[in-house]
Amino acid sequence: MIKKILLQLTKGAVIGVNAGLLISLAFSYLLKLNEYVPAPPRFLNHFHNQTNAMLVSVIIWAVIGGVFSCTNLIFSEFDWSITKMTIVHFGITFFLFLPLALIAGWFPFSLFNISAFFVEFGIIYSIIWIISMLQTKKEINKINARLLK
């Protein structure tokens, strides 16, 4: 199990860094900035130079990727109901992702912002969950159709 977790952590970290880099590039272009910024100004202001800010951003992106990748093991390693797996997965990812989003400066710390983040996270999580369930149902139907032949 440790080997599986380390593999997931490594894969997730690579995906997280690449996703973070692409998203930060997209925001730099969308905001029509003259220079690349890896994070919002409230995050960048904590650093003496851009290189340190970039290094910490990469670490945050890697940890985010690792969190989401490792928590997906809940769906393959536990013999729970889909409801229990989903609730546990949602709770763990939310409570691990929230401090990372705060550290990254994506929004200021306040009860209102955390509540809004919870709602946004829940909506995005629900959309991804529904898509995953539909894909799984489609795959099960394909397998059942092959078995009936």
Automatic annotation (TrEMBL):
Q: Which residues cross the membrane?
A: 12-31, 51-75, 87-108, 114-134
The source's domain of life comes to: Bacteria
Keyword terms of this UniProt record: Membrane, Transmembrane, Transmembrane helix
Tell me, what's a Pfam family for it? DUF3021
What name does this protein carry?
DUF3021 domain-containing protein
Which InterPro entries does the record associate with it?
A: DUF3021 (IPR021560)
